Amino acid sequence: MPDRQQADDADEPGRDLESEAARRRRRAQFLRERHDAKQLRERVQPRRARAARMRQAMRMRAFRR
After folding, report:
1. What counts of helices (H) and strands (E) characterise the chain?
2. 7-39 b/e (C-beta count within 10 Å ≥ 16 → b)
3. Cα separation of 4 and 31, whole Å?
4. pTM for the structure as a whole
5. Each residue of 18-53: pLDDT tens digit?
């Protein structure tokens, strides 16, 4: 019985690394898709996108002081 526990403990770091790698792949995919969606939105609605950029610029200026 203790041998089985040691074998499970030995496998644990490998599973953590794999799940971490899978999480990073999913996150990278999500960020790519989000970036693509933002670019598409800017092309489809240029006026709204420009207004959003201006609002963001105003917010950033408020923190420069």
Report:
1. 2, 0
2. eeeeeeeeeeeeeeeeeeeeeeeeeeeeeeeee
3. 40
4. 0.49
5. 899 999 999 999 999 999 998 998 888 878 888 888
